[in-house]
Amino acid sequence: MPSAVFELPDGAELVLDVPDDWSLMEAARRDGLEGIVAECGGGAICGTCHVQVDAAWFGRLDPPGMAEQALLEVVPERCPTSRLSCQVIMTPELDGIRLRVPSAQLEM
Ligand code: FES
């Protein structure tokens, strides 16, 4: 099964199994990952699933849709590789993807 590596603000890394066709947010919620609240349940309207994708992986992702782009404009700690983890769907090509959970996510 593919996996994703989430780096927490304190530097800890957690490797989560992510079934194909699951969003990264779904796997994070299943495993109770701190900082991925996902208040809207994956509707791309809350921003509480924000992650910063490792630059080496960012270019492999499908581009964000308009709703995601708009929300990313206002999330705390936005960076050039920011994405909503509910909008990133696991595929075999993304096995091993690395992400960082912004510290602001722990305050939500
Ligand atoms: S879960 Fe709400 S934007 Fe991703």
How would you explain this protein's 3D organization?
- By secondary structure, this protein is an alpha+beta fold.
- The protein has one domain: Roll (Ubiquitin-like (UB roll)), CATH 3.10.20.
- The protein has a 5-stranded mixed β-sheet with strand order 2-1-5-3-4.
- Strand 1 and strand 2 form a beta hairpin.
- The longest helix is centred in the N-terminal third of the chain and has 7 residues.
- The termini are far apart.
Mean pLDDT: 96
In this entry the ligands are: FE2/S2 (inorganic) cluster
Largest sheet: 5 strands, mixed
User: Based on CA inertia axes, which overall geometry fits?
Assistant: globular
The radius of gyration over CA amounts to: 12 Å
List the uncertain runs: none
Number of DSSP strands? Answer: 5
Category from helices, strands and their pairing: alpha+beta
SSE order, one letter for each helix or strand: EEHEHHEE
CATH topology: Ubiquitin-like (UB roll)
Number of helices: 3
The CATH homologous superfamily is named: Beta-grasp domain
> How many angstroms separate the termini?
30 Å
CATH class: Alpha Beta
Name the helicity range.
10-25%
CATH architecture annotation name: Roll
Strands in their spatial order, largest beta sheet: 2-1-5-3-4
Number of domains: 1
- Strand content range: 15-25%
Sum this structure up briefly.
This protein has 108 residues and is α+β, with helices and mostly antiparallel strands.
